[in-house]
Design brief:
Number of strands: 6
Strand content: 15-25%
Shape: globular
């Protein structure tokens, strides 16, 4: 089993990394392979709604989005980490996730892949960012992993984050819960298969 951890912070070893790393170490102890991918310092443009991914099966802009999509297809779970900018995720990460989740929908089914969001802030805006990130999972049929509290850590840098004992414990609990859920889903798939799906219905009231 494998989990991808997406670091949306431009600071490769900052407070967001510190939180994600605590999750990764815990997952590894539970026998889950992990890979952390840093995208916050990359030049990633937003979706332009060209619809080309419907034709070619991947995003027309060939950057980290397409690279990660291939890994996501073979992963069992994903943890997305973001710093808090104006009570929301940073723009690079949002551009990345918009294109990743939209274009990859043409490539593979995300049903029952496990998702989790992790946010870091000096002080406030955490829960709004946490809610924002979880929406990518819930629109994709991905069970969302919880912890003992909202998945947040406080600190203006890695040194500060390491002093947030509760935040670090939240990340460890998240890692253990994620490992348990992934293993449980694997057993469920083996015994019962995936849930039955229906052809999608799109209701549009604009005529």
């Amino acid at each position: 089993m494998k989990v991808l951890l997406i670091n949306g912070s431009p600071h490769v070893k900052g407070s967001t990394y510190t939180a994600l790393n605590e999750v990764a170490v815990t997952l590894e102890k539970e026998g889950i392979e992990t890979e952390m991918i840093h995208i916050g310092h990359q030049a990633i443009r937003g979706c332009i709604a060209c619809g080309k991914c419907r034709e070619i099966g991947h995003c027309v802009f060939d950057d980290a989005v397409n690279e990660v999509a291939e890994k996501f297809a073979n992963a069992d779970g994903m943890v997305v980490g973001s710093p808090v900018y104006y009570a929301s995720a940073n723009a690079t990460l949002v551009a990345f996730l918009d294109r990743l989740f939209y274009s990859s929908a043409r490539q593979f089914d995300k049903t029952m892949k496990v998702g989790a969001a992790v946010v870091s802030a000096r002080r406030g805006g955490n829960t709004a960012t946490f809610d924002e990130l979880n929406k990518y999972f819930t629109i994709s049929g991905m069970p969302v992993v919880s912890s003992q509290y909202w998945n947040q850590i406080h600190g203006n840098n890695a040194e500060d984050a390491l002093k947030d004992a509760e935040g670090l414990q939240i990340m460890r609990t998240l890692g253990r819960n994620m490992a348990f859920l992934m293993k449980s889903i694997a057993l469920g798939k083996e015994a019962y298969g995936l849930p039955e799906t229906e052809a999608k219905v799109a209701t549009n009231f604009i005529r």
